[in-house]
Amino acid sequence: MYRSSLVKAFLFALSVCSTAQAGKVSSSLKIHLPKDLTRVNGYDHREALFGIPPYGGSIQQNVVYADHDMCTPPTNANWKSPYFLLVDRGNCSFVQKVRNAQHAGAAAVIIADNTCQCSHEKVCTPEANTECEKHEPIMADDGSGFDITIPSVLMFKQDADPIKEQLKKKKTVRIELQWSLPNPDDHVEWDLWTSPTDFVSTRFKAEFGDAVKALGNSATFKPHMYIYDGLDANCRDDEGKTTCFNLCTNEGRYCATDPDGDIDFGISGADVVTESIRRLCIWELYGDDGVGQEWWDYVRVFTDKCDTSADFMKDACVRAVMEDIDMDYDMVDQCIFRHGGLQDDVANDVLDTQLDDKESNGIVIMPVVYVNGVAVRGALEFAVVFKAICAGYAEDTAPAICNQCASCADEKECVLNGGRCSAAAGSVKQSTFVGSLALTIVVCSMVGVLMYMRQQRMMKDQVRGILKEYMPLDLQNQNVDNAFDDDDDDLQLKGEMS
């Protein structure tokens, strides 16, 4: 019974992802050519949850129609880079299509939906023998999209079909993609959805605390923990007992997936929920300033000391972490108990808030960062998030650290160096350049002096040789210097040359 309940819980988690609504987009899509396809406000579209869009920038290129599903690399493509590639949806994952397009030289990919959405039935003409989709497709990462560096979007069928018709007629279609984040003022609000066992964000959470400190009060951060509703997942039977074994707390109310994939070994789902509420309480106690440096310190040290199958759930390890960073363990424990605890069939209001926020924000991918309410696309890396936050300020209001580091080759090193940008790859630091230049000048000067002295010696030797050849001297009776009369013109010449 436990095993079947676990399967049901897993399927429920998948259904949440498939039925959640797509979040707000941070980009605009406009057609510049042909004129009859232009729209003042651009076209409705959906962004991929992978790739790295250029926040604060835009790309404008002619469009090429693949006429190929791009599930395999094209063999006879004669597309001149750069270009946007229009690809039909279907037959393989979005990531696979975009990866093959990237390798073929595309600057961006536009996926053309081939199925009408039920909400668009008045404006969309379906293909024969097809039914409309009730839920929008989500361009999610299949787990291998870390190497995708170009942006991609999906256009709905009623908008993509006219573009395909133009391209099939060999007509020019030119599209502009532009990315921006809402930037109403001089303050940015950003959120991170993660979990204690989310290995994708482990490095980010260990490193980004320095950036949070550098941004200071100009940016307000808020962490969220990803759990799922055990009651909706049927993790409690009619008698009020949990049926999902050790995945849940509070008699099946709050659950998390088993990170080990083995319910009989290591970290359990209930352990993940416990650590989640602990981190939420740490934020409640220490995050009033919107920076929460103690929260970042705890996560970093916990990852170093306790993030193993043997120590993750041990109370002694948690206590040791809090002692290292001077955090009050009892105060955090009291916070967990005050909000409802984890043992009995009692609602925990902090965890209920996480479930409500997850549903209202349509969280389908974890981890994910939101800046000013818009999801940040691309890998969860220091540079991507730092640039997105800096792009969220109104013009000329970003903090100094953004102006100093957002355009650096290595943003992380710049932040750690207090805003000093290091040399880009393939270049040298200014100090190194100046030192090398000074050394070169000194060496050249020394070589010049030596060459001058050598030339003078050679000239003297040549003059002496000429004088000896044409005016023989009596070396036995007198020396070279007094062999000539004082009024001898050649002697005067010698004096001038020496």
- Classify the secondary structure makeup into a structural class: alpha/beta
What is the oligomer described by this structure? single chain
Q: How many helices does DSSP assign?
A: 15
Number of DSSP E strands: 14
How far apart the termini lie comes to 111 Å
Strand content: 5-15%
The best one-word shape is flat
Q: Order of strands side by side in the largest beta sheet? A: 1-7-3-4-5-6-2
Q: Show unreliable segments.
A: 1-23, 424-428, 480-498
Whole-angstrom Rg: 36 Å
How much helix, percentage-wise, in residues? 25-40%
Order of helices and strands: HEEEEHEEHEEHHEEEEHHHHHEEHHHHH
Largest sheet: 7 strands, mixed
List the helices and strands and how they pair.
Elements: H1 2-19, E1 27-33, E2 45-47, E3 58-65, E4 84-88, H2 94-103, E5 108-112, E6 152-155, H3 157-168, E7 174-179, E8 188-194, H4 202-207, H5 209-215, E9 219-225, E10 228-229, E11 248-249, E12 254-255, H6 269-286, H7 293-305, H8 315-324, H9 329-338, H10 349-360, E13 368-371, E14 374-375, H11 382-390, H12 400-405, H13 411-416, H14 430-470, H15 489-497
Parallel strand pairs: 3-4, 4-5, 5-6, 8-9
Antiparallel strand pairs: 1-7, 2-6, 3-7, 8-13, 10-12, 11-12, 13-14
Helix pairs in contact: 6-7, 6-9, 7-8
Give a concise summary.
The chain is α/β, with parallel strands linked by helices and 498 residues long.
Question: If you had to describe this structure to a student in words, what would you say it looks like?
Answer:
The protein is of the alpha/beta class and 498 residues long. The chain has 15 helices and 14 strands. Helices cover 38% and strands 13% of the residues. The strands form three sheets. The protein has a seven-stranded mixed sheet with strand order 1-7-3-4-5-6-2, with helices on both faces. β13 (368-371) and β14 form a beta hairpin.
